[in-house]
């Protein structure tokens, strides 16, 4: 890859949107706008957008379509503003237009949409976000959610009203969102980045039709094992096999070069941490002891107490300012200004034998369903793919085992869709 075309050749991407199993229409929309010249990439980079509409009749579909169309238009038109401000401004302008459209027709009243936009630019990535669609990053088998879900469940957890993964947290409806583009003339947009994008990084944008049925860890593992087009296909297939309760939209991209023009530290700034309560208490005790010893004239003890307090003060300063994890390195919030507060969740995406076996179980469930319902499937290619998966298992190559089992799912579902006129099969697991 030459230096002159790295901006274009160093990225692979794919987009897929599916109606799911239970919806009458697809209210998701998406857009990929890839720069057609180095000059345009330098100014605005590549832009990827996912929107999940909401509203009666065709209102949600219209809202998401408007967001996916208007945001790239406004973003590319404003060539003078810095990239984060241009993206934020484009989202605000799209919000104004969707809001006015909703006010102009009673059938469109209160229509809205979620919005997740990622710009890959010379300095890395910049994310603009509203709602509960998501942007993820996979880096060296660590899968991180870069966006905060504006949902009732996440807001209550963030405010300390419920504990994550508690019974109460699981009882809160997941589809109640607290922020969306369109219903109101005013909009608060979360901005994240710019963060360096490194060679080998993979990113995924999706609507909640994917993240409901498919676990975060599963998404991360598959993203790391397959190229963009195939990972989109198998993720949508898995979501539909597990009921497909909503529309499903996925954009995935693989970065094959470093994008970090300004040389920002990959680890980011350190988070300031609050000291444990015991540390300042012990410092006060040490100071009081020094005073008591001074009154009693026990000068060696005074020196010892002062040294003790000074040591605690130095340790507290190191703990608060020098030892914390990098901002954005974990689920803890940190950082400020243009960097935002992400990532918000972190998962291991290392391929495992257990996950390869789980995918093999999905293929077996499809075999059983095909036999029971009389579906005609040519199993030769699928058998070959599973044989390659078994060979990878014997070598302990779980990445290849996962990849070949995923290929087997894709091949099976492709035949079933063709045979059943694009009607997705459902399988009980």
UniProtKB/TrEMBL annotation:
Outline the segment boundaries, as ranges, of region: Disordered.
327-346
Instruction: Answer whether the UniProt record assigns the keyword Amino-acid biosynthesis to this protein.
Output: no
Q: Which residues form the signal peptide?
A: none
Which InterPro entries does this entry report, sorted A to Z? Answer: PP2C, PPM-type-like_dom_sf, PPM-type_phosphatase-like_dom
Ranges of Gly residues compositional bias? Answer: 331-340
Q: Which residues cross the membrane?
A: 277-295, 301-321
A family per Pfam: PP2C_2
Q: Is Cell cycle one of the keywords?
A: no
Classification via Gene3D superfamilies: PPM-type phosphatase domain
User: A single Gene Ontology molecular function, please?
Assistant: protein serine/threonine phosphatase activity
Keywords of the record, alphabetical order, are: Hydrolase, Membrane, Transmembrane, Transmembrane helix
User: By its UniProt entry, which SUPFAM superfamilies does this protein fall under?
Assistant: PP2C-like
Which superkingdom heads the taxonomic lineage of this protein's source? Bacteria
- Domain PPM-type phosphatase, residue spans: 12-255
This protein is called what? PPM-type phosphatase domain-containing protein
Give the organism, scientific name. Answer: Roseimaritima multifibrata
């Amino acid at each position: 890859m030459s230096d002159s075309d790295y901006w274009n050749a160093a990225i692979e991407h794919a987009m897929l949107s599916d109606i799911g199993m239970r919806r009458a229409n697809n209210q998701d929309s998406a857009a990929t706008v890839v720069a057609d010249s180095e000059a345009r990439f330098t100014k605005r980079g590549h832009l990827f957008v996912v929107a999940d509409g909401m509203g009666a009749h065709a209102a949600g579909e219209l809202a998401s379509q408007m967001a996916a169309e208007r945001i790239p238009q406004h973003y590319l038109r404003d060539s003078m503003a810095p990239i984060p401000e241009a993206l934020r401004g484009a989202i605000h302008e799209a919000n104004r237009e969707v809001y006015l459209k909703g006010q102009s027709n009673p059938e469109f009243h209160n229509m809205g949409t979620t919005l997740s936009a990622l710009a890959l630019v010379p300095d890395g990535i910049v994310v603009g976000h509203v709602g509960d669609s998501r942007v993820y990053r996979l880096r060296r088998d660590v899968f991180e959610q870069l966006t905060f879900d504006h949902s009732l469940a996440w807001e209550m957890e963030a405010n300390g009203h419920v504990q994550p993964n508690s019974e109460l947290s699981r009882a809160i409806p997941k589809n109640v969102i607290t922020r969306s583009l369109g219903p109101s003339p005013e909009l608060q947009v979360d901005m994240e980045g710019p963060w360096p994008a490194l060679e080998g990084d993979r990113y995924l944008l999706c609507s909640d039709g994917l993240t409901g049925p498919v676990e975060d860890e599963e998404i991360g593992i598959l993203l790391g094992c397959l190229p963009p087009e195939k990972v989109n296909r198998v993720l949508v297939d898995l979501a539909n096999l597990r009921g497909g309760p909503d529309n499903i939209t996925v954009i995935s991209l693989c970065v094959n070069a470093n994008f970090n023009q300004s040389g920002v530290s990959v680890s980011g700034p350190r988070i300031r941490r609050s000291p444990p309560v015991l540390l300042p208490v012990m410092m006060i005790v040490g100071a009081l002891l020094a005073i008591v010893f001074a009154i009693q004239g026990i000068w060696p003890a005074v020196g010892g107490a002062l040294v003790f307090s000074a040591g605690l003060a130095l340790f507290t300063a190191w703990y608060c300012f020098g030892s914390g994890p990098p901002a954005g390195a974990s689920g803890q919030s940190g950082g400020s200004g243009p960097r935002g507060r992400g990532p918000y969740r972190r998962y291991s995406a290392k391929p495992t034998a257990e996950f390869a076996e789980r995918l093999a179980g999905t293929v077996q469930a499809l075999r059983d369903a095909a036999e029971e319902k009389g579906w005609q499937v040519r199993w030769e290619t699928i058998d070959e793919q599973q044989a390659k998966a078994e060979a990878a298992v014997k070598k302990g190559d779980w990445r290849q085992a996962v990849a070949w089992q995923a290929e087997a799912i894709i091949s099976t579902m492709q035949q079933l869709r063709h045979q059943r006129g694009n009607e997705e099969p459902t399988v009980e697991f």
